[in-house]
Amino acid sequence: MTDSQHDYQEIRDAVRALCAQFPDEYHRKIDEERGYPDEFVQALTEAGWMAALIPQEYGGSGLTMAEASVIMEEINRSGGNSGACHGQMYVMNAIVRGGSPAQREKYLPRIATGELRIQSMGVTEPSTGSDTTQLKTTAEKKDGRWVINGQKVWISRIQHSDMMILLARTTPLAEVKKRSEGLSCFLVDLKQAIGHGLTVRPILNMVNHETNELFFDNLEIP
């Protein structure tokens, strides 16, 4: 049976049953207080749904992208807002696909259990939007460490993350053959970075969705 013929009813039923424990009143109160649904996200984590895309050998479920999308669909159908948690499910794919074996062993099991939150991805910039080929944030290698300078905007869930995936240019655009070359992803420990080269400025908005401007001023990372 192909994905297009499969409705994933077993997954839908299980996610719906969990979401039913958090009625509209719960989510309404969270929004009114401009809070974060910690209990809801924790319940999803303990049930294994946030680790859907993490391979089984690292403590995840090893589900497909289609199955992960069904999970998000049911969260949104229930009245909950997947914007509060979808980053925990998807962002770690940068580690699954591009991380070293040591990084996968170190981080993925902790992400699967929820011990480590990695819900933010620093990509969008003020002058380039989501056109990653034109981004201006740079990473230069100095004395065995990377030095980050630049600015990001509309970066969500920083306040509810331990780490962030950051996209920066490591080779100047003028020196690459293809515009998509010379870009690298970095793991940033937010607790170490904030106040030591990384400044986070929250952006006020009309909905209960936390988003931020990020300023990198000679931030040093391994």
Structure notes:
The structure is a single chain. This protein is an alpha+beta fold. It folds into two domains: 3-113, Butyryl-Coa Dehydrogenase, subunit A, domain 1, CATH 1.10.540; 120-221, Beta Barrel (Butyryl-CoA Dehydrogenase, subunit A, domain 2), CATH 2.40.110.10. It has eight helices and seven strands; from the N terminus they run αααααααβββββαββ. It has helices at 9-19, 24-32, 38-46, 65-77, 86-90, 93-98, 101-113, 190-193; strands at 120-122, 138-142, 145-156, 163-169, 183-189, 198-202, 211-221. A four-stranded antiparallel sheet has the order 2-3-7-6, with no helix packed on it. A three-stranded mixed sheet has the order 1-4-5. The protein is globular, with a radius of gyration of 19 Å. It starts with 8 loop residues before the first helix and ends with a strand.
Topology:
Blueprint: H1 9-19, H2 24-32, H3 38-46, H4 65-77, H5 86-90, H6 93-98, H7 101-113, E1 120-122, E2 138-142, E3 145-156, E4 163-169, E5 183-189, H8 190-193, E6 198-202, E7 211-221
Parallel strand pairs: 1-4
Antiparallel strand pairs: 2-3, 3-7, 4-5, 6-7
Short description:
With 222 residues, this protein is of the alpha+beta class. The protein contains 8 helices and 7 strands; from the N terminus they run αααααααβββββαββ. The protein has a 4-stranded antiparallel beta sheet with strand order 2-3-7-6, with no helix packed on it. Strands 1-4-5 form a 3-stranded mixed beta sheet.
Span between termini: 45 Å
Content-based structural category: alpha+beta
Low confidence ranges: none
Strand order of the largest sheet: 2-3-7-6
Residues in helix, %: 25-40%
CATH architecture of the largest domain: Orthogonal Bundle
Fraction in beta strands: 15-25%
CATH H-tier superfamily of the largest domain: Acyl-CoA dehydrogenase/oxidase, N-terminal domain
How many DSSP H or I helices? 8
| CATH fold-level label of the largest domain | Butyryl-Coa Dehydrogenase, subunit A, domain 1
Report the sheet with the most strands, covering strand number, pairing sense and barrel closure: 4 strands, antiparallel
**What is the element string, with H for helices and E for strands?**
HHHHHHHEEEEEHEE
> Residue-averaged pLDDT, rounded?
94
Multimeric state: single chain
Shape: globular
Q: What is the tally of beta strands?
A: 7
Radius of gyration, Cα only, in angstroms? 19 Å
Quickly count the domains: 2
Assign the CATH class of the largest domain: Mainly Alpha
